Amino acid sequence: MGLCFNVSSNNHIEYNHRSSYRSGVAFRHGRCDLRWSGTGTTVNHNLIHHIRSVWLWWMGHIYWMRKYSVVIENNLVYLAKSAGFHQHYGKDNIIRNNIFAMNTDAQLERTRNENHMSFTFEKNIVYWVESKLLTSNWRENNYKFINNLYYRTDGLPIMFSN
Q1: Rg for the chain (alpha carbons), in Å?
Q2: Which domain holds residue 63?
Q3: Do the domain assignments include residue 37?
Q4: Average model confidence (pLDDT) across the chain
C-alpha cells in the first residue's frame, strides 16, 4: 500500500517522506492514494520522490480517486514513474502551491472527464527536462489552471495540447 489510504473525511496527511530506491521498482509504494475521501481532507508538506512502478496506473505520486473538496498544498513530488499529480475521479479539489518536477512520462495526468468541476490547479511549480506536460484525458473545461509556473529545460516549447 502507498503512503496513505482511507475512506473517510477530515483527514490530514502531513510531513511524510516517501521514496523507493529498490532497483527503480515499487509496487504502489510511495503514492498518496486517497480513495473515497471527502470534505475536509488535506495533504500538506509531504515529500514524495524516486518512486517507480511496474504498471502504468501505479505511479508513485499523489493520486486522487473519488475525492471531493480535498486540498493538496505545499508538497514536493519528483522523479515519479508517470505523473507527479493524477486525478482519476474527483470534484472541487484544490491543488495549490506544490512542486511537481522531473517526472518520467508526463508531469500531470487526468484520467476521467466528468460533468462537474474536477479541480483547480493554482500557484504550483511544474519543472521538467523532457516528456509531456499533460497526459491522458484533458477534454472539456471542467478544471482550472491559475497562476502556475511551468519550466521546461530541454528547450522545446511548453505544450498544453497538440
Answers
A1: 14
A2: 12-152
A3: yes
A4: 79
